């Protein structure tokens, strides 16, 4: 029995993500919450002949509480998306409050659920969830995840494109570490399963790194005011959710990249902190998953000089983003 819940289920990401979750035979209950339209989305999905029973609720009459009761995993794509000219940090003003309120609901009703945060800016919204859980005395760093899978999906696609082998994209795996915005997105191309051409020019290499870091901007620009990535994000969110569900079900050795607290690691992330040369509360790296959440945070491995520079550039921005989230809860709670 697995209950999956989507908060923000009527949105651009929420609807296709809910559809994908409805197709998963391991899910027995699917709870959908949004401030609009969830009864309609739930009625629509409920006609699909897969095992899960779908319930859609709105805020009145304890809708959030009802949906969250018994949740094993809660995915949060609630909040406003970017328009051209905006950074993800520009979303903080609105999304911080939304995520704080939803996190309060989860901490109260389903404190043991795995929480998967999609709402931007992820670098700050994940610390918000963590701080809210701390306030409620239910914080378990092993169960709170920032979803950075889209960066990894993009890296696979763009590397396959550079190699001129689009059909290989599903097999290309590139670790992407750091966080989820601009320079905090650090692709480790030297560790790609598929090596780049040995004669790749410095310009082409730099362009590839930049494309992975700023792939979200491409979509925001193309949508021209109608939002940001939704379909590719639903795909990525589903991919990560599936790994979480498989781990919950007891499958061993599942590894997924995610933005998590270093405290989620049994050794407190000390190996990673040593590699980074600094104390950072949250960082995205490959994470091994188990029935209780994070089992181990993988270290970064051997980085090239260029990759070390990218990590160095990411750290101060991550520190600022984390502090913004932590301070918000300290001041508004
Ligand atoms: P959207 O506007 O289409 O959908 C957001 C949904 O959230 C809407 O249906 C809205 O009604 C709902 N919502 C707002 N306040 C709510 C609340 N208090 N409780 C429940 N639901 C609420 O936006 P979208 O395109 O789906 O994007 C959602 C978020 O995901 C944005 O912040 C966006 O930046 C982010 N995002 C993250 C990634 C990532 O890689 N992590 C990728 C793409 C988008
Ligand atoms: C993305 O990477 O596509 C998302 O974070 C949405 C955005 O604002 O770019």
TrEMBL record:
It is an enzyme of class 1 (oxidoreductase). Its EC number is 1.1.1.37. It catalyses: (S)-malate + NAD(+) = oxaloacetate + NADH + H(+). Residues 3-146 form the Lactate/malate dehydrogenase N-terminal domain. Gene3D superfamilies: Lactate dehydrogenase/glycoside hydrolase, family 4, C-terminal, NAD(P)-binding Rossmann-like Domain. NAD(+) binds at residues 8-14, 34, 95, 118-120, 233. Substrate binds at residues 82, 88, 120, 154. Residues 148-328 form the Lactate/malate dehydrogenase C-terminal domain. The keyword NADP does not apply. GO terms for cellular component: cytosol. Keywords: NAD, Oxidoreductase, Tricarboxylic acid cycle. GO terms for biological process: malate metabolic process; tricarboxylic acid cycle. GO terms for molecular function: L-malate dehydrogenase (NAD+) activity. The active site is at 180 (proton acceptor). InterPro entries: L-lactate/malate_DH, Lactate/malate_DH_C, Lactate/malate_DH_N, Lactate_DH/Glyco_Ohase_4_C, Malate_DH_AS, Malate_DH_type1, NAD(P)-bd_dom_sf. It holds the Pfam family Ldh_1_C. Homodimer. Belongs to the LDH/MDH superfamily. MDH type 1 family. This is Malate dehydrogenase. It comes from Mycena chlorophos (Agaric fungus).
């Amino acid at each position: 029995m697995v209950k999956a819940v989507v908060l923000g289920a009527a949105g651009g990401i929420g609807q296709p993500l809910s559809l994908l979750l409805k197709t998963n035979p391991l899910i027995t209950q699917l709870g959908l919450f949004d401030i609009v339209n969830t009864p309609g989305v739930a009625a629509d999905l409920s006609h699909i002949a897969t095992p899960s029973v779908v319930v859609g609720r709105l805020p009145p009459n304890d809708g959030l509480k009802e949906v969250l009761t018994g949740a094993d995993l809660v995915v949060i794509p609630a909040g406003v998306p970017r328009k051209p000219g905006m950074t993800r940090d520009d979303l903080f003003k609105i999304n911080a409050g939304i995520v704080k309120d939803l996190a309060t609901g989860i901490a109260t009703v389903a404190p043991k659920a795995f929480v998967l945060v999609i709402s931007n800016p992820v670098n700050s919204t994940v610390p918000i969830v963590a701080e809210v859980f701390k306030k409620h005395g239910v914080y378990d760093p092993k169960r709170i995840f920032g979803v950075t899978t889209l960066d990894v999906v993009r890296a696979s696609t763009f590397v396959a494109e550079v190699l001129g082998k689009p059909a290989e994209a599903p097999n290309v795996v590139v670790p992407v570490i750091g966080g989820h915005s601009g320079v905090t997105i650090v692709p480790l191309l030297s560790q790609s399963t598929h090596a780049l051409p040995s004669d790749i020019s410095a310009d082409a290499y730099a362009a590839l790194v930049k494309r992975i870091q700023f792939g979200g901007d491409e979509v925001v620009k193309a949508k021209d005011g109608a939002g940001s990535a939704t379909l590719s994000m639903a795909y990525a969110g589903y991919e990560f959710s599936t790994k979480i569900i498989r781990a919950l079900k007891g499958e061993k050795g599942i590894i997924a990249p995610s933005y998590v607290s270093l405290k989620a690691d049994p050794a407190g992330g000390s190996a990673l902190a040593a590699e980074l040369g600094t104390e950072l509360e949250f960082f995205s790296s490959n994470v091994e998953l188990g029935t209780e959440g994070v089992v181990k945070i993988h270290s970064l491995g051997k980085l090239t000089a260029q990759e070390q520079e990218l990590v160095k550039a990411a750290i101060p921005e991550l520190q600022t983003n984390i502090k913004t989230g932590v301070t918000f809860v300290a001041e508004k709670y």
